[in-house]
Amino acid sequence: MRTTNLYAPTLRETPAEAEVRSHQLMLRAGMIRKAAGGLYSYLPLAWRTIKKIEAIIREEMDAAGGQEISMPILQPAEIWQESGRWPVYGAEMVRVTDRHGRQFCLGPTHEEMVTTLVRDEVRSYKQLPLMLYQIQNKYRDEIRPRFGLMRGREFIMKDLYSFDKDEEGMNESYKKMYDAYTNIYNRMGLNFRPVEADNGAIGGGHSHEFTVLAEAGESSIAYCDTCDYAASDEKAELKVIKAAEEEILPLEKKNTPDCSTIEMVAEYLGLPMEKCIKAVAFQTDTDEVVLCFVRGDHEVNDVKVINLVEGALELRMAEDDAIRAVGGCPGFMSPIDIKEGTKIIVDHTVMEMYNACAGANEKDFHYINVNPKRDFKDVVVADIRMVQEGDCCPHCNGHMKMTRGIEAGQVFTLGTKYSEALHATFLDENGREKPMMMGCYGIGVGRTMAAAIEQNNDENGIIWPKAIAPFEVVVVPVNGKNAQQMELAEKVYKELKDAGVDALLDDRKDRAGVKFKDADLIGYPIRITVGPKTVEEDVLELKVRRTGETVTVSVGEAAGKTVEMLTDL
Ligand code: ATP
Ligand code: MG
Q1: For a Cys staple, 158 with which of 168, 271, 421, 443, CB 3.0–4.6 Å?
Q2: Residues 316, 180: one domain?
Q3: Is the pLDDT of residue 236 over 60?
Q4: CA of 196 to the centre of ligand 2 (A)
């Protein structure tokens, strides 16, 4: 490809609308253009990268046993009504009505479609396992489309669905996909972590988010500085912290005027926060009150709490009257003397405290010498706190660190959620009818491209990992009007192509500075400069975009040296 034949309108200025680097750079490098909020056209450079990402995904999906198919984007409402998701999917679903008044949606995902596809054909355990995937546009009317391709309303997703005869099979499929995803992100040259995720609404089973580490990411993740453990901050498990044993003292009530926050109490009584018990009161969507207690210097993790409250879909802060109705006093709460039958959840670390301070359920009073094992009755003990930097790893002796990342892919086991609702059953070895065990596995192709840029850029532009660069190499003749330079540049370009290198020849007649700036902005991994010295002394320069390292070689050596350098990149 020659630049004079490439539609890549680069911009000198950073467009004001773009907040994050990937969005700014994709606009400036002439890769994408906005059509409307969350809707983008992909120009040739972006599309080349998209195709390379898709090729890697396809190879790994096929190698893991996946078969590529293509299902309709336009999906009939009936199958969503059958699964029960039509009414609950909400405003994010793009709904359309045809000329006959029938309702459809533009697929935000394809569980219903794929399950109804297999249910009529797969009848026997002999036809399982089955893995079907597609790479196509998905539609979600996101409340806040933003950050360019990172959160669009139309976006490209690879989605694979696995069908197995039993749980063991499902877990095997999950493992295959987990490994395939690991290969995909490794091959793309990205720094990522498979992060244990909360699979919330889907319930039960396993889920990992493949998270590309980058500051602009919306996910906060905790990872161990020693072992492989990583989890979303909501999910990160925490060990019990045992306080040093003390002699158990008698409970004592203290007047603590106006000390309605944990900080005020700690200061008033001269206690460290680790000696205080913090209370947080929630109310569920069915108005049940849930009282939660963590150590004073810890925070409650409401995702962990919601998972412990059967039937609850949402939690909100409890109203004062609701707290009073169960015997609590807002600002001065503890599990002591709460009305019987009230849901009280105490963090497991709190149970190991000695002679602590907690509310007395009476305005302006606290207890000291609270010993949870002695004083708390009818409480649920569980890990309900939020991870913090420096916490002990639940799996080794290491410590947790916090970082931000971009969820580029996610893998889930679904169990029989969809196969039961949509009657996708088969006959097992004994002729018994069973629902299929399913899994679903998505990769955001555009978001992965954006994440790659977030992780790989500098003040001059993008620094593509070679596997997904729109071109691996750009050949730049310093003076496009000089026939001898052009001839040598053409020669190098041809030899690169013959050696299997994905090269671009910048044959524009523009100034060298303009071409160099574009090369840095677009971020080709290697730039080869053909100049006067090439003509006169048979030397040309190879420059590595990431490191700025340069190597000079003869024209005849250029292709061979480029291949060698690309291998090492
Ligand atoms: P998020 O929590 O970021 O909204 P999600 O968990 O709803 O994403 P999934 O249903 O797991 O997304 O979709 C699989 C993948 O599709 C995600 O990991 C992500 O890479 C991509 N994706 C999801 N929503 C969008 C979007 N609005 N724009 C671009 N990519 C998206
Ligand atoms: Mg997800």
Answers
A1: 443
A2: no
A3: yes
A4: 11
- For ligand 1, atom 14, name the residue with the nearest CA: 442
CB atoms within 10 A of CB 28: 21
> Which of 394, 419, 454 marks a domain boundary?
454
Query: What CATH number should be reported for the domain holding residue 516?
Result: 3.40.50.800
- Whether 289 and 344 map to the same domain: the answer is yes
* pLDDT digit string, tens, across residues 474-532: 999 999 999 999 999 999 999 999 999 999 999 999 999 999 999 999 999 999 999 99
Which of 157, 219, 234 has most ligand 1 atoms within 8 Å of its beta carbon, as the pocket-test mutant?
A: 157
- Which residue, 303, 383, 371, is CA-closest to 347? 383
Phi, psi angles (nearest 5°) of residue 43: -85, 175
Tens of pLDDT along 17-69? 999 999 999 999 999 999 999 999 999 999 999 999 999 999 999 999 999 99
Pairing mode, strands 503-505 and 473-477:
parallel
- Helix boundaries (H) for 354-499: 372-375, 417-421, 445-455, 483-498
The answer on 185 and 37 residing in a single domain is yes
pLDDT of residue 216: 87
User: Where is the domain boundary, 382, 411, 442?
Assistant: 382
- Ligand 1 binding pocket (C-beta < 6 A) is 109, 140, 142, 151-152, 155, 157, 407-410, 442, 444, 446-447
Closest CA to 196 of 209, 184, 186, 183: 209
pLDDT band at 442 (very low <50, low <70, confident <90, very high): very high
pLDDT at 550: 97
Pocket test for ligand 1, best of 155, 184, 219 (most atoms within 8 A of CB): 155
Say whether both 436 and 503 belong to one domain. Answer: no
Q: What is the mean pLDDT of the chain?
A: 95
pLDDT exceeds cutoff 80 at 199 = no
Q: How confident is the model at residue 190 (pLDDT cuts 50, 70, 90)?
A: very high
* Residue 161 lies in domain: 15-236+402-454
The Cα 479–Cα 510 span in angstroms is 8
CB 244 within 8 A of CB 231: no
- State how far the Cα of 25 lies from the Cα of 107, in Å rounded to an integer: 29
Whether 59 is in a domain gets the answer yes
Angle 106-111-116 (CA atoms, 0-180°, nearest 5)? Answer: 95
CA of 443 to the centre of ligand 2 (A): 9
Confidence at residue 325, expressed as pLDDT on a 0 to 100 scale: 96
* pLDDT > 60? residue 3: yes
The pair of structure tokens assigned to 543 is 């420059």
Same domain, 95 and 192: yes
